[in-house]
Amino acid sequence: MIEQINNPVVEVHDLMVSYGQNPVLWNIDLTLPAGNLIGILGPNGAGKSTLIKAIMGLVEANSGYSKIFDQDLNHVRNRVSYVPQRESVDWDFPASALDIVMMGTYHHLGLFKRPGKKEKELAMDCLQKVNMKAFAKRQISELSGGQQQRVFIARALAQQADIYFMDEPFAGVDMSTEKALVSLFQEMTATGKTVIVVHHDIYSAGKYFNWLIMLNMHLIASGPTEKVLTEDLLTKTYGGKLSMLTDIGELIKKSDFNPLKN
Amino acid sequence: MSFDPNAFIIILTGSMIAISCGLLGVFLMLRKMAMTGDAISHAVLPGIVIAFLISGSRHGLAMVIGAGLVGIIATVFIEYLSNKVKLQSDASIGITFTSLFAIGIIMITFLANQIDLDQDCVLYGEIAYVPIDLWITGSGTIMGPRVTYLSLINLTLVSLFIYLFFKELKISTFDKEFAATIGLSTVGVNYGLMGMVSYTTVSSFEAVGAILVVALMVVPPATAFLWTKNLKRLIQLTVALGILASFLGYYLAFFLNSSIAGAMASVAGFFFFLSVILNRKQIPAIKKKLSKMKVA
Lengths: 262, 296
What we know:
The structure holds 2 protein chains of 2 kinds.
Chain A: E1 10-19, E2 22-32, E3 37-41, H1 48-55, E4 63-68, E5 80-83, H2 97-102, H3 106-109, H4 117-129, H5 145-158, E6 163-166, H6 175-190, E7 194-198, H7 202-208, E8 211-216, E9 218-224, H8 225-228, H9 231-238, H10 244-254
Parallel strand pairs in A: 3-7, 3-8, 5-6, 6-7
Antiparallel strand pairs in A: 1-2, 1-4, 8-9
Chain B: H1 5-30, H2 34-43, H3 45-55, H4 61-84, H5 89-110, H6 119-124, E1 134-136, E2 142-145, H7 146-164, H8 166-174, H9 176-181, H10 186-227, H11 231-256, H12 260-278, H13 282-295
Helix pairs in contact in B: 1-2, 1-7, 1-10, 1-11, 2-4, 2-5, 2-10, 3-4, 3-5, 4-5, 4-10, 7-10, 10-11, 10-12, 11-12
């Protein structure tokens, strides 16, 4: 069940990504509507993070392309924000929560310019939105995992983008914070922004998102939550027979045949 | 003790070198690339020799360019080995710099009869000669100690580099992926930093040698990191420690009648261990680590 739409904010066409000889994503073809809170679901190793990394140009695609606002990412970087997984950085870095959020204002500044009062005020507002204003001066190494996650989201807010890609923003976050973040994301989508979230929990996904992408190395489903959250598609995403693609990967590794190299 | 102009020149030069190294070292340490700095400082040796052969002088622009290029080549090679060949990063560093260094040693010994350059000079340097190595212009005017000028230029350029690209260095050090998504050339920042490390090594090797340059790059930032978790404070403290090491190192060497560069590095090392002991928070953490190691 893959629903394609007109005038998408994100368009992925024929995308294929592999790490070395191991294919991770096969033939992904999808279009995403504006103003939605979109969840990416799938088991471990399904390529959820890889999909958004490929869209953000952080991993190289073997084939295919992706477009944002019908343009190449390089032309619209100011309108796109990316929140990496919390564990991808070293939180011992000497900086305060405010320092990190200020980084969200850097791309508007350009070379040689330093963030000033205006940027600081914006950063404080963003910290306020994730309920972290009281921790602005705190060293990031002294924050809890959930607080660090909220600092990352505040940094994304400071980018004042139109599309947000978030890689597991709820990892290590307690339930009340998760709910607060979801309603923050819902407020954002209500003003026309698009928020795309890599998510683990099938049960809460139905409540949080109004559009779902289901992924297991290839695209199982992409569409409005009420249409795609079916037992059949969930089994296809998480269950049984879908190890076929992994088997193909194994076969490629064993034989000398490698379709990824010419 | 009366004012000794030679002592002043040596301490001034030593301080400027220590500050340049420390400024770059802060970012090397935060990027977990302290050993890459070590590798570059050794790998530039063939660059130094080739530049020497071409230009025929131990100073000047050719030297800086030659070593800078080899330093960047070393960085490219290390990243190629660890990212594309998928070799462990420490092994990549070990292979790259020892190979380049070995080539440099062969070149020096091979050409020993023809050129005025030897291993001792490159590896150990001698800051004590700084006051007598004068820069004399074509018309015969004595401008003062040559290496002091070199280290002043080096310090100016390093400070300018850090000042102008502070934002970019900070963001690409903390979160490389995020930096890339806002359109920053993280590769460019990396090569810029490595280029500055190469240049600083070359500029300093006559005074402190290619080996002790590494001590000045790694030890003061690591010491400062034990005391502060604020990037600007970390840089200030590193600078202060560099000056202190130079000052105390000189007098230590004076009383021991020994190598000044060696004494500078020893003083820096002494401050590091003193900080470890004084930093109470660190003591339980170290004990924890030690007990874990015993169990393992």
